[in-house]
Protein backbone atom coordinates (compact mmCIF):
# COMPACT_ATOMS: atom_id res chain seq x y z
CA UNK A 1 0.00 0.00 0.00
CA UNK A 2 2.75 2.39 0.92
CA UNK A 3 4.65 1.28 -2.12
CA UNK A 4 1.73 2.04 -4.37
CA UNK A 5 1.34 5.51 -2.99
CA UNK A 6 5.02 6.19 -3.45
CA UNK A 7 4.93 5.05 -7.04
CA UNK A 8 1.97 7.31 -7.71
CA UNK A 9 3.80 10.25 -6.20
CA UNK A 10 6.86 9.63 -8.28
CA UNK A 11 4.93 9.08 -11.51
CA UNK A 12 2.94 12.29 -11.06
CA UNK A 13 6.02 14.48 -11.36
CA UNK A 14 6.73 13.80 -15.03
CA UNK A 15 2.98 14.04 -15.79
CA UNK A 16 2.78 17.59 -14.43
CA UNK A 17 5.94 18.49 -16.31
CA UNK A 18 4.50 17.19 -19.56
CA UNK A 19 1.25 19.09 -19.05
CA UNK A 20 3.08 22.33 -18.27
CA UNK A 21 5.27 21.89 -21.34
CA UNK A 22 2.17 21.25 -23.46
CA UNK A 23 0.32 24.39 -22.38
CA UNK A 24 3.44 26.58 -22.59
CA UNK A 25 3.95 25.65 -26.22
CA UNK A 26 2.46 28.85 -27.71
CA UNK A 27 3.72 32.40 -28.06
CA UNK A 28 2.11 35.76 -28.82
CA UNK A 29 3.21 38.18 -31.56
CA UNK A 30 1.56 41.44 -32.57
CA UNK A 31 1.71 43.97 -35.39
CA UNK A 32 -0.02 47.22 -36.33
CA UNK A 33 -1.09 48.50 -39.74
CA UNK A 34 -0.50 51.26 -40.68
CA UNK A 35 2.49 52.18 -38.52
CA UNK A 36 1.30 55.81 -38.42
CA UNK A 37 -2.46 56.37 -38.61
CA UNK A 38 -4.26 59.62 -39.37
CA UNK A 39 -7.01 60.88 -37.08
CA UNK A 40 -10.31 59.36 -38.18
CA UNK A 41 -8.73 56.66 -40.35
CA UNK A 42 -8.71 52.95 -39.51
CA UNK A 43 -5.86 51.07 -37.82
CA UNK A 44 -5.74 47.29 -37.42
CA UNK A 45 -4.08 45.59 -34.43
CA UNK A 46 -3.28 41.92 -35.08
CA UNK A 47 -2.43 39.37 -32.38
CA UNK A 48 -1.16 35.94 -33.44
CA UNK A 49 -1.11 32.91 -31.10
CA UNK A 50 1.64 30.74 -32.53
CA UNK A 51 2.06 27.07 -31.61
CA UNK A 52 -0.28 24.69 -29.80
CA UNK A 53 -3.23 26.90 -28.88
CA UNK A 54 -5.43 25.50 -26.06
CA UNK A 55 -9.18 25.29 -26.51
CA UNK A 56 -9.91 27.14 -23.27
CA UNK A 57 -8.23 30.50 -23.67
CA UNK A 58 -8.81 34.17 -22.92
CA UNK A 59 -7.44 36.92 -25.15
CA UNK A 60 -7.43 40.53 -24.03
CA UNK A 61 -6.55 43.58 -26.22
CA UNK A 62 -6.15 46.73 -24.15
CA UNK A 63 -4.41 50.09 -24.13
CA UNK A 64 -1.71 50.45 -21.50
CA UNK A 65 -2.59 53.42 -19.29
CA UNK A 66 -0.90 54.91 -16.23
CA UNK A 67 -3.94 54.68 -13.94
CA UNK A 68 -6.28 52.14 -15.52
CA UNK A 69 -5.93 50.04 -18.66
CA UNK A 70 -8.56 50.60 -21.34
CA UNK A 71 -10.11 47.49 -22.89
CA UNK A 72 -10.54 47.36 -26.64
CA UNK A 73 -11.58 43.73 -27.03
CA UNK A 74 -11.89 40.63 -24.80
CA UNK A 75 -12.45 37.04 -25.96
CA UNK A 76 -13.29 34.11 -23.61
CA UNK A 77 -13.57 30.67 -25.21
CA UNK A 78 -15.02 29.05 -22.06
CA UNK A 79 -18.11 31.23 -22.15
CA UNK A 80 -19.26 30.34 -25.67
CA UNK A 81 -16.94 32.86 -27.30
CA UNK A 82 -17.99 35.90 -25.27
CA UNK A 83 -16.76 39.15 -26.87
CA UNK A 84 -16.65 42.35 -24.84
CA UNK A 85 -15.89 45.86 -26.12
CA UNK A 86 -15.11 49.12 -24.42
CA UNK A 87 -18.39 50.74 -23.38
CA UNK A 88 -19.87 52.99 -26.07
CA UNK A 89 -17.22 52.05 -28.64
CA UNK A 90 -18.95 49.22 -30.51
CA UNK A 91 -19.20 51.42 -33.63
CA UNK A 92 -15.60 52.64 -33.35
CA UNK A 93 -13.99 49.28 -32.47
CA UNK A 94 -14.50 45.97 -34.24
CA UNK A 95 -12.78 42.74 -33.06
CA UNK A 96 -12.67 39.13 -34.20
CA UNK A 97 -11.10 35.88 -32.96
CA UNK A 98 -10.49 33.12 -35.49
CA UNK A 99 -8.12 30.12 -35.28
CA UNK A 100 -5.67 31.74 -32.92
CA UNK A 101 -5.67 35.16 -34.61
CA UNK A 102 -7.23 38.14 -32.87
CA UNK A 103 -7.71 41.28 -34.98
CA UNK A 104 -9.03 44.57 -33.68
CA UNK A 105 -9.90 47.41 -36.05
CA UNK A 106 -10.62 50.83 -34.61
CA UNK A 107 -10.75 54.46 -35.65
CA UNK A 108 -8.63 56.88 -33.59
CA UNK A 109 -10.64 60.03 -32.95
CA UNK A 110 -7.95 62.05 -31.22
CA UNK A 111 -4.22 62.23 -30.63
CA UNK A 112 -4.70 60.69 -27.17
CA UNK A 113 -5.36 57.35 -28.89
CA UNK A 114 -1.60 57.16 -29.48
CA UNK A 115 0.26 54.86 -27.10
CA UNK A 116 1.13 51.26 -26.24
CA UNK A 117 -1.39 48.48 -26.90
CA UNK A 118 -1.11 45.02 -25.32
CA UNK A 119 -2.40 41.64 -26.48
CA UNK A 120 -2.50 39.22 -23.52
CA UNK A 121 -3.39 35.51 -23.76
CA UNK A 122 -4.15 33.36 -20.68
CA UNK A 123 -4.95 29.68 -20.26
CA UNK A 124 -4.80 27.51 -17.08
CA UNK A 125 -2.39 29.82 -15.35
CA UNK A 126 -0.16 30.27 -18.41
CA UNK A 127 0.17 33.93 -19.44
CA UNK A 128 1.72 35.37 -22.62
CA UNK A 129 1.64 38.94 -23.92
CA UNK A 130 3.11 41.23 -26.57
CA UNK A 131 3.13 45.03 -26.91
CA UNK A 132 2.89 47.28 -29.97
CA UNK A 133 2.90 51.05 -30.50
CA UNK A 134 0.17 53.11 -32.21
CA UNK A 135 1.15 56.55 -33.50
CA UNK A 136 -1.69 58.94 -34.37
CA UNK A 137 -0.92 61.94 -36.62
CA UNK A 138 -2.95 64.80 -38.01
CA UNK A 139 -2.59 65.85 -41.66
CA UNK A 140 -4.53 69.07 -41.42
CA UNK A 141 -6.68 71.10 -43.74
CA UNK A 142 -5.41 72.88 -46.84
CA UNK A 143 -4.23 76.39 -45.95
CA UNK A 144 -6.88 79.07 -46.29
CA UNK A 145 -4.82 81.88 -47.82
CA UNK A 146 -6.51 85.27 -48.15
CA UNK A 147 -5.64 88.91 -48.77
CA UNK A 148 -6.53 90.76 -45.57
CA UNK A 149 -5.55 94.25 -46.64
CA UNK A 150 -3.97 96.12 -49.57
CA UNK A 151 -2.78 99.70 -49.23
CA UNK A 152 0.13 101.86 -50.41
CA UNK A 153 1.59 99.09 -52.61
CA UNK A 154 1.75 96.64 -49.69
CA UNK A 155 -0.33 93.53 -49.07
CA UNK A 156 -1.18 91.78 -45.80
CA UNK A 157 -1.88 88.06 -46.19
CA UNK A 158 -3.40 85.62 -43.72
CA UNK A 159 -2.83 81.84 -43.73
CA UNK A 160 -5.04 79.62 -41.53
CA UNK A 161 -5.12 75.84 -41.14
CA UNK A 162 -6.12 73.29 -38.49
CA UNK A 163 -6.00 69.59 -37.63
CA UNK A 164 -2.21 69.04 -37.47
CA UNK A 165 -0.11 66.75 -35.26
CA UNK A 166 2.69 66.78 -34.30
CA UNK A 167 3.40 70.53 -34.34
CA UNK A 168 3.78 71.55 -37.99
CA UNK A 169 6.17 73.91 -39.70
CA UNK A 170 4.86 77.02 -41.50
CA UNK A 171 6.76 78.26 -44.54
CA UNK A 172 6.15 81.37 -46.66
CA UNK A 173 7.81 81.69 -50.09
CA UNK A 174 7.68 84.19 -52.95
CA UNK A 175 7.39 83.49 -56.69
CA UNK A 176 11.13 82.73 -56.94
CA UNK A 177 10.95 80.12 -54.18
CA UNK A 178 12.80 82.29 -51.65
CA UNK A 179 11.89 81.57 -48.02
CA UNK A 180 10.41 84.74 -46.46
CA UNK A 181 9.00 83.11 -43.30
CA UNK A 182 11.09 85.41 -41.10
CA UNK A 183 8.85 88.31 -42.18
CA UNK A 184 5.69 86.56 -40.89
CA UNK A 185 3.97 86.52 -37.51
CA UNK A 186 2.83 82.98 -36.71
CA UNK A 187 0.77 81.58 -33.82
CA UNK A 188 0.49 77.80 -33.39
CA UNK A 189 -1.70 76.41 -30.59
CA UNK A 190 -3.57 73.23 -29.64
CA UNK A 191 -7.34 72.85 -29.70
CA UNK A 192 -9.45 70.71 -27.35
CA UNK A 193 -8.57 67.56 -29.33
CA UNK A 194 -4.81 68.22 -28.97
CA UNK A 195 -4.52 69.04 -32.68
CA UNK A 196 -2.61 72.13 -33.74
CA UNK A 197 -4.15 75.25 -35.30
CA UNK A 198 -2.08 77.70 -37.35
CA UNK A 199 -2.68 81.43 -37.71
CA UNK A 200 0.02 83.24 -39.68
CA UNK A 201 0.11 86.74 -41.21
CA UNK A 202 2.59 88.23 -43.65
CA UNK A 203 3.00 91.75 -44.96
CA UNK A 204 4.92 92.27 -48.21
CA UNK A 205 5.40 94.95 -50.84
CA UNK A 206 3.65 94.14 -54.12
CA UNK A 207 6.86 94.89 -56.00
CA UNK A 208 8.64 92.04 -54.18
CA UNK A 209 6.68 89.24 -55.86
CA UNK A 210 3.55 88.74 -57.93
CA UNK A 211 2.64 85.53 -56.05
CA UNK A 212 3.04 84.33 -52.46
CA UNK A 213 2.65 80.76 -51.17
CA UNK A 214 1.90 79.42 -47.69
CA UNK A 215 2.99 75.83 -46.96
CA UNK A 216 2.18 73.75 -43.86
CA UNK A 217 4.51 70.77 -43.29
CA UNK A 218 3.98 67.70 -41.07
CA UNK A 219 7.51 66.67 -39.95
CA UNK A 220 6.44 63.13 -39.00
CA UNK A 221 4.59 62.31 -42.22
CA UNK A 222 7.03 64.25 -44.44
CA UNK A 223 3.98 65.63 -46.23
CA UNK A 224 2.72 69.16 -46.78
CA UNK A 225 -0.19 71.24 -48.00
CA UNK A 226 0.40 74.37 -50.04
CA UNK A 227 -1.63 77.30 -51.33
CA UNK A 228 -0.55 80.02 -53.78
CA UNK A 229 -2.18 83.42 -54.21
CA UNK A 230 -1.56 86.22 -56.72
CA UNK A 231 -1.09 89.44 -54.76
CA UNK A 232 -0.86 91.66 -57.82
CA UNK A 233 -4.40 90.60 -58.66
CA UNK A 234 -3.61 90.67 -62.37
CA UNK A 235 -5.82 88.77 -64.72
CA UNK A 236 -7.52 89.64 -67.95
CA UNK A 237 -9.99 88.33 -70.49
CA UNK A 238 -9.37 88.55 -74.20
CA UNK A 239 -10.77 87.46 -77.56
CA UNK A 240 -9.22 87.30 -81.00
CA UNK A 241 -12.02 89.38 -82.54
CA UNK A 242 -14.98 91.38 -81.30
CA UNK A 243 -17.43 90.65 -84.14
CA UNK A 244 -18.83 87.20 -84.97
CA UNK A 245 -20.94 86.51 -88.04
CA UNK A 246 -23.13 83.42 -87.68
CA UNK A 247 -25.32 81.60 -90.18
CA UNK A 248 -28.89 80.67 -89.31
CA UNK A 249 -29.16 77.04 -88.21
CA UNK A 250 -25.45 76.61 -87.56
CA UNK A 251 -23.40 76.82 -84.38
CA UNK A 252 -21.26 79.78 -83.36
CA UNK A 253 -18.40 80.07 -80.87
CA UNK A 254 -18.01 83.33 -78.98
CA UNK A 255 -14.34 83.37 -77.99
CA UNK A 256 -13.16 84.35 -74.51
CA UNK A 257 -9.91 83.47 -72.77
CA UNK A 258 -8.95 84.03 -69.12
CA UNK A 259 -5.32 85.18 -68.82
CA UNK A 260 -3.73 84.74 -65.39
CA UNK A 261 -0.54 83.25 -63.93
CA UNK A 262 -2.34 81.82 -60.90
CA UNK A 263 -6.03 81.26 -60.41
CA UNK A 264 -7.27 83.44 -57.51
CA UNK A 265 -8.74 81.60 -54.48
CA UNK A 266 -12.18 82.86 -55.49
CA UNK A 267 -13.53 84.09 -58.80
CA UNK A 268 -16.77 84.74 -60.64
CA UNK A 269 -17.11 84.08 -64.38
CA UNK A 270 -20.15 85.20 -66.33
CA UNK A 271 -21.63 85.33 -69.83
CA UNK A 272 -24.57 87.66 -70.41
CA UNK A 273 -26.46 89.23 -73.29
CA UNK A 274 -26.81 93.01 -73.08
CA UNK A 275 -28.83 95.68 -74.81
CA UNK A 276 -31.90 97.87 -74.28
CA UNK A 277 -34.25 95.73 -72.22
CA UNK A 278 -32.17 92.61 -72.98
CA UNK A 279 -29.62 92.52 -70.16
CA UNK A 280 -29.79 88.97 -68.84
CA UNK A 281 -27.33 86.41 -67.52
CA UNK A 282 -26.85 83.34 -69.70
CA UNK A 283 -24.17 81.53 -67.74
CA UNK A 284 -22.77 82.03 -64.25
CA UNK A 285 -19.88 80.19 -62.56
CA UNK A 286 -18.62 80.93 -59.05
CA UNK A 287 -16.06 79.22 -56.87
CA UNK A 288 -14.62 80.03 -53.46
CA UNK A 289 -12.04 77.75 -51.86
CA UNK A 290 -12.75 79.09 -48.38
CA UNK A 291 -16.36 77.96 -47.93
CA UNK A 292 -19.20 76.01 -49.57
CA UNK A 293 -21.54 78.09 -51.69
CA UNK A 294 -25.31 78.26 -51.94
CA UNK A 295 -27.55 78.75 -54.92
CA UNK A 296 -28.40 82.44 -54.96
CA UNK A 297 -30.49 82.30 -58.13
CA UNK A 298 -34.17 81.35 -58.24
CA UNK A 299 -34.93 77.85 -59.45
CA UNK A 300 -37.32 79.09 -62.14
CA UNK A 301 -34.54 81.18 -63.70
CA UNK A 302 -31.54 78.86 -63.55
CA UNK A 303 -30.83 75.19 -63.72
CA UNK A 304 -27.84 73.56 -62.06
CA UNK A 305 -25.25 71.80 -64.17
CA UNK A 306 -22.34 69.68 -63.01
CA UNK A 307 -19.64 69.42 -65.67
CA UNK A 308 -17.36 72.09 -64.09
CA UNK A 309 -16.49 71.47 -60.45
CA UNK A 310 -12.74 72.00 -59.85
CA UNK A 311 -13.39 72.73 -56.17
CA UNK A 312 -16.21 70.25 -55.49
CA UNK A 313 -18.77 71.64 -53.05
CA UNK A 314 -16.98 75.00 -53.17
CA UNK A 315 -18.25 75.81 -56.66
CA UNK A 316 -21.58 76.53 -58.31
CA UNK A 317 -22.58 76.73 -61.94
CA UNK A 318 -25.82 77.90 -63.51
CA UNK A 319 -27.27 78.14 -66.97
CA UNK A 320 -30.49 79.97 -67.80
CA UNK A 321 -33.23 77.43 -68.54
CA UNK A 322 -33.86 78.95 -71.94
CA UNK A 323 -30.26 78.09 -72.87
CA UNK A 324 -30.16 74.49 -71.59
CA UNK A 325 -29.86 73.08 -75.12
CA UNK A 326 -28.83 76.33 -76.70
CA UNK A 327 -25.51 77.12 -75.02
CA UNK A 328 -22.49 75.47 -73.45
CA UNK A 329 -19.18 76.73 -72.13
CA UNK A 330 -15.96 75.01 -73.12
CA UNK A 331 -15.28 72.40 -70.47
CA UNK A 332 -12.72 69.85 -69.33
CA UNK A 333 -9.06 70.55 -70.05
CA UNK A 334 -9.84 73.60 -72.18
CA UNK A 335 -11.53 75.29 -69.21
CA UNK A 336 -8.45 74.52 -67.11
CA UNK A 337 -6.31 76.26 -69.74
CA UNK A 338 -8.39 79.42 -69.49
CA UNK A 339 -10.66 78.82 -72.48
CA UNK A 340 -14.09 80.03 -71.32
CA UNK A 341 -15.59 80.48 -74.79
CA UNK A 342 -19.36 80.18 -75.20
CA UNK A 343 -20.89 78.01 -77.91
CA UNK A 344 -24.39 78.87 -79.14
CA UNK A 345 -26.17 76.12 -81.07
CA UNK A 346 -28.70 76.44 -83.90
CA UNK A 347 -28.30 80.19 -84.36
CA UNK A 348 -31.45 82.21 -85.08
CA UNK A 349 -32.14 85.87 -85.86
CA UNK A 350 -33.16 86.56 -82.25
CA UNK A 351 -29.68 85.46 -81.11
CA UNK A 352 -28.18 88.55 -82.71
CA UNK A 353 -26.83 91.13 -80.27
CA UNK A 354 -24.03 91.97 -77.85
CA UNK A 355 -22.60 89.34 -75.50
CA UNK A 356 -20.34 90.08 -72.51
CA UNK A 357 -17.74 87.70 -71.06
CA UNK A 358 -16.55 88.87 -67.62
CA UNK A 359 -14.35 87.76 -64.71
CA UNK A 360 -14.31 89.22 -61.20
CA UNK A 361 -11.92 88.52 -58.29
CA UNK A 362 -10.30 90.46 -55.45
CA UNK A 363 -12.24 93.61 -56.43
CA UNK A 364 -10.81 93.39 -59.96
CA UNK A 365 -13.22 93.18 -62.87
CA UNK A 366 -12.44 92.51 -66.53
CA UNK A 367 -14.82 92.03 -69.45
CA UNK A 368 -15.01 91.96 -73.23
CA UNK A 369 -17.98 92.53 -75.54
CA UNK A 370 -18.62 90.47 -78.67
CA UNK A 371 -21.04 91.60 -81.40
CA UNK A 372 -22.93 88.70 -82.97
CA UNK A 373 -24.46 89.15 -86.43
CA UNK A 374 -26.83 86.49 -87.77
CA UNK A 375 -27.43 86.05 -91.50
CA UNK A 376 -29.39 83.54 -93.58
CA UNK A 377 -28.00 81.03 -96.04
CA UNK A 378 -26.62 83.01 -99.01
CA UNK A 379 -27.90 80.70 -101.75
CA UNK A 380 -31.41 80.70 -100.27
CA UNK A 381 -31.42 84.46 -99.83
CA UNK A 382 -30.38 85.01 -103.47
CA UNK A 383 -33.52 83.18 -104.66
CA UNK A 384 -35.80 85.49 -102.67
CA UNK A 385 -37.33 88.62 -104.22
CA UNK A 386 -35.03 91.61 -104.26
CA UNK A 387 -37.20 93.59 -101.84
CA UNK A 388 -37.01 90.74 -99.28
CA UNK A 389 -33.34 90.00 -99.77
CA UNK A 390 -32.11 93.35 -98.47
CA UNK A 391 -28.63 94.57 -99.19
CA UNK A 392 -26.97 91.69 -101.09
CA UNK A 393 -23.57 93.35 -101.03
CA UNK A 394 -23.73 93.61 -97.22
CA UNK A 395 -24.57 89.91 -96.97
CA UNK A 396 -21.66 88.99 -99.23
CA UNK A 397 -19.27 91.16 -97.21
CA UNK A 398 -20.44 89.50 -94.00
CA UNK A 399 -19.95 86.04 -95.49
CA UNK A 400 -16.48 86.93 -96.73
CA UNK A 401 -15.63 88.33 -93.31
CA UNK A 402 -16.74 85.09 -91.68
CA UNK A 403 -15.01 82.71 -94.07
CA UNK A 404 -12.05 84.53 -95.60
CA UNK A 405 -10.86 87.02 -92.99
CA UNK A 406 -10.11 84.50 -90.28
CA UNK A 407 -8.71 86.15 -87.16
CA UNK A 408 -5.09 85.52 -86.32
CA UNK A 409 -4.31 83.20 -83.41
CA UNK A 410 -2.07 84.16 -80.48
CA UNK A 411 1.38 82.67 -79.91
CA UNK A 412 2.89 82.35 -76.43
CA UNK A 413 6.58 81.58 -75.78
CA UNK A 414 7.58 79.98 -72.48
CA UNK A 415 10.71 82.17 -72.63
CA UNK A 416 12.04 84.85 -74.95
CA UNK A 417 15.71 84.30 -74.14
CA UNK A 418 17.38 80.88 -74.06
CA UNK A 419 20.70 79.08 -74.39
CA UNK A 420 21.56 76.23 -76.79
CA UNK A 421 20.31 72.95 -75.32
CA UNK A 422 17.44 74.56 -73.40
CA UNK A 423 13.93 73.21 -73.89
CA UNK A 424 11.19 75.74 -74.58
CA UNK A 425 7.46 75.57 -75.22
CA UNK A 426 5.44 77.37 -77.89
CA UNK A 427 1.65 77.55 -77.47
CA UNK A 428 -0.72 78.56 -80.25
CA UNK A 429 -4.11 79.74 -78.96
CA UNK A 430 -6.87 79.31 -81.55
CA UNK A 431 -10.40 80.60 -81.05
CA UNK A 432 -12.50 79.73 -84.10
CA UNK A 433 -16.20 79.17 -84.65
CA UNK A 434 -15.37 76.60 -87.35
CA UNK A 435 -13.63 73.24 -87.05
CA UNK A 436 -9.85 73.72 -87.10
CA UNK A 437 -8.28 71.19 -89.48
CA UNK A 438 -4.63 72.11 -89.03
CA UNK A 439 -2.18 74.36 -87.17
CA UNK A 440 1.27 75.49 -88.34
CA UNK A 441 4.26 76.97 -86.50
CA UNK A 442 6.59 79.28 -88.42
CA UNK A 443 10.06 80.77 -87.92
CA UNK A 444 10.81 83.96 -89.83
CA UNK A 445 7.75 83.26 -91.99
CA UNK A 446 8.81 79.71 -92.95
CA UNK A 447 6.79 76.72 -91.75
CA UNK A 448 8.72 74.52 -89.29
CA UNK A 449 5.95 72.28 -87.91
CA UNK A 450 2.35 71.37 -88.64
CA UNK A 451 -0.27 69.64 -86.48
CA UNK A 452 -3.70 68.21 -87.21
CA UNK A 453 -6.60 70.09 -85.68
CA UNK A 454 -8.82 68.47 -83.07
CA UNK A 455 -12.43 69.20 -82.17
CA UNK A 456 -12.84 71.68 -79.28
CA UNK A 457 -9.07 71.97 -78.89
CA UNK A 458 -7.96 75.58 -78.53
CA UNK A 459 -4.33 75.27 -77.40
CA UNK A 460 -1.65 73.60 -79.56
CA UNK A 461 1.83 72.95 -78.12
CA UNK A 462 5.23 72.77 -79.82
CA UNK A 463 8.27 71.67 -77.78
CA UNK A 464 11.55 72.94 -79.20
CA UNK A 465 15.16 72.23 -78.19
CA UNK A 466 17.09 75.47 -78.63
CA UNK A 467 20.15 75.50 -80.89
CA UNK A 468 22.46 78.23 -82.11
CA UNK A 469 20.20 78.80 -85.11
CA UNK A 470 16.97 79.09 -83.13
CA UNK A 471 17.08 82.88 -82.91
CA UNK A 472 14.28 84.47 -84.89
CA UNK A 473 10.66 85.54 -85.06
CA UNK A 474 8.10 82.81 -84.37
CA UNK A 475 4.42 82.82 -85.30
CA UNK A 476 1.58 80.37 -85.86
CA UNK A 477 -1.53 80.04 -87.99
CA UNK A 478 -4.41 77.67 -88.61
CA UNK A 479 -6.80 76.50 -91.30
CA UNK A 480 -10.50 75.71 -91.11
CA UNK A 481 -13.09 73.82 -93.10
CA UNK A 482 -16.47 75.54 -93.08
CA UNK A 483 -19.95 74.11 -93.54
CA UNK A 484 -19.50 74.14 -97.32
CA UNK A 485 -16.16 72.27 -97.07
CA UNK A 486 -14.17 75.37 -98.03
CA UNK A 487 -10.64 75.31 -96.62
CA UNK A 488 -9.24 78.68 -95.57
CA UNK A 489 -6.05 79.73 -93.77
CA UNK A 490 -5.90 82.39 -91.12
CA UNK A 491 -3.42 85.21 -90.90
CA UNK A 492 -0.27 84.42 -88.95
CA UNK A 493 -0.17 85.47 -85.32
CA UNK A 494 1.88 88.51 -84.30
CA UNK A 495 5.52 87.39 -84.25
CA UNK A 496 7.29 86.62 -80.98
CA UNK A 497 11.08 87.10 -80.88
CA UNK A 498 13.37 84.41 -79.45
CA UNK A 499 16.93 85.42 -78.61
CA UNK A 500 19.60 82.73 -78.19
CA UNK A 501 22.47 83.62 -75.88
CA UNK A 502 25.67 81.81 -74.93
CA UNK A 503 27.26 80.08 -77.91
CA UNK A 504 25.49 82.31 -80.38
CA UNK A 505 27.74 84.81 -82.13
CA UNK A 506 27.40 88.31 -80.73
CA UNK A 507 29.28 90.04 -83.57
CA UNK A 508 28.12 93.62 -84.07
CA UNK A 509 28.16 95.49 -87.42
CA UNK A 510 31.06 97.64 -86.16
CA UNK A 511 33.12 94.56 -85.30
CA UNK A 512 32.37 93.02 -88.71
CA UNK A 513 33.45 96.22 -90.51
CA UNK A 514 36.70 96.29 -88.56
CA UNK A 515 37.49 92.70 -89.55
CA UNK A 516 36.77 93.44 -93.24
CA UNK A 517 39.10 96.45 -93.22
CA UNK A 518 41.88 94.45 -91.58
CA UNK A 519 41.51 91.64 -94.12
CA UNK A 520 41.54 94.15 -96.97
CA UNK A 521 44.74 95.77 -95.66
CA UNK A 522 46.34 92.35 -95.31
CA UNK A 523 45.45 91.36 -98.88
CA UNK A 524 46.64 94.71 -100.33
CA UNK A 525 49.94 94.47 -98.48
CA UNK A 526 50.78 90.98 -99.68
CA UNK A 527 49.48 91.77 -103.15
CA UNK A 528 51.90 94.72 -103.35
CA UNK A 529 54.84 92.54 -102.15
CA UNK A 530 54.05 89.94 -104.78
CA UNK A 531 53.95 92.54 -107.54
CA UNK A 532 57.43 93.83 -106.58
CA UNK A 533 58.91 90.33 -106.60
CA UNK A 534 57.49 89.65 -110.03
CA UNK A 535 59.18 92.75 -111.45
CA UNK A 536 62.51 91.87 -109.83
CA UNK A 537 62.50 88.27 -111.10
CA UNK A 538 61.38 88.95 -114.64
CA UNK A 539 57.72 88.28 -114.13
CA UNK A 540 58.19 85.00 -112.28
CA UNK A 541 56.29 84.83 -108.98
CA UNK A 542 58.69 84.20 -106.08
From TrEMBL:
UniProt cross-references to Gene3D superfamilies, sorted A to Z: Immunoglobulins (2.60.40.10)
Position of the signal peptide: 1-29
Any matching Pfam family: C2-set_3
Cellular compartment(s): Membrane
InterPro entries: BTN3A2-like_Ig-C, Ig-like_dom, Ig-like_dom_sf, Ig-like_fold, Ig_sub, Ig_sub2, Ig_V-set, IgSF_BTN/MOG
Chief place where the protein resides: membrane
GO terms (BP aspect): regulation of cytokine production; T cell receptor signaling pathway
Keyword Metal-binding set for record: no
A GO cellular-component term linked to this record: external side of plasma membrane
Keywords per UniProt: Immunoglobulin domain, Membrane, Signal, Transmembrane, Transmembrane helix
PANTHER family xref list: BUTYROPHILIN (PTHR24100), BUTYROPHILIN-LIKE PROTEIN 9 (PTHR24100:SF130)
Protein name (Swiss-Prot/TrEMBL): Ig-like domain-containing protein
Species name: Mauremys mutica
Amino acid sequence: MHLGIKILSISSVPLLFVLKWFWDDFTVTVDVNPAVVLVGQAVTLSCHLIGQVPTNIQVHWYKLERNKNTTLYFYNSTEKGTELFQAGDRQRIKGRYENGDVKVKFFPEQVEDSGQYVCAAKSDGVYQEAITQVIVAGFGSAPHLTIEHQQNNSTTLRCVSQGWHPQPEVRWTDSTGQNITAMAETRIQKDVTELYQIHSTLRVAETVSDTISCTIINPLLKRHRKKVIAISGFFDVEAEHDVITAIIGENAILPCRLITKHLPPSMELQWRKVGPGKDKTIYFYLYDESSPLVNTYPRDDKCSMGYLSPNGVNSREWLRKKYEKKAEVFKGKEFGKGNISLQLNNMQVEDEGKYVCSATANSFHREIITDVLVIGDLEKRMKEPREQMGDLEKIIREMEKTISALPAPTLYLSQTSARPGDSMQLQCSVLSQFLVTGVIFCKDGEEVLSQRGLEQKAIYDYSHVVSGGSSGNYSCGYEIKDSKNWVKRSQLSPAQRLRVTGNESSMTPATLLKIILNVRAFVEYWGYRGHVHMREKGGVWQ
